[in-house]
Amino acid sequence: MARTVKVDGQPYTKKSGATFSKYVPKKGPNRGKNQFITNGWFLRNKELMNISCVTTTKSKVTPKGWMGHIACSVLNKVTGEETFFWGAMQQSTGKVVIEKLSMVVNPASKNGGYCGTFIQSNN
């Protein structure tokens, strides 16, 4: 499940990760349009959780570069339970915030991405 990598010469077990990619669907309502997908994973109580966040037909870019109406599904690989949430994505980096879960999926962070708790600062 978790990967062991070296950080500053010391072994470190990775507990989360994320990737971001663009694609053009060949079928469905978004056929021929550029779409974005962010995938993430993390370990919770020794259970592997996968998050898949994709743009929808309602996803529109704001002047600040964020898109709403991002469909996010969370899958527990051990129990097979899948839940659905709405999120917001930053178009340039693929970073997704799922406010209802207080989670962030950030493929642009250090060491291969981060998927986990999101704490909003009050600055």
Q: Can you describe what's shown?
A:
This protein is mainly beta and 123 residues long. The protein has a single domain (4-117), classed as Lipocalin (Beta Barrel). It is built from no helices and ten strands. The protein has strands at residues 4-7, 10-13, 16-23, 35-44, 47-55, 66-76, 82-90, 96-98, 103-106, 114-117. The strands form two sheets. The protein has an eight-stranded antiparallel β-sheet, with no helix packed on it. Strand 4 (35-44) and strand 5 (47-55) form a beta hairpin. The radius of gyration is 15 Å and the shape is globular. The mean pLDDT is 86.
Brief account:
This protein is mainly β and 123 residues long. It is built from no helices and 10 strands. The model has no long low-confidence stretch (mean pLDDT 86).
Q: If you average the pLDDT, what whole number results?
A: 86
What is the succession of H and E elements? EEEEEEEEEE
Could you say what the CATH topology is called?
Lipocalin
CATH class: Mainly Beta
Domains (count): 1
**What structural category do the secondary elements indicate?**
mainly beta
Span between N and C termini? 37 Å
Number of strands: 10
Rounded to an integer in angstroms, the radius of gyration calculated over CA atoms is: 15 Å
Shape: globular
CATH architecture: Beta Barrel
Q: Give the biggest beta sheet.
A: 8 strands, antiparallel
Q: Tell me the strand percentage band.
A: over 45%
Low-pLDDT ranges: none
**Number of helices in the DSSP assignment:** 0
Give the helix level as a range of percent.
under 10%
Q: Walk across the major sheet and give the strand order.
A: 3-4-5-6-7-8-9-10
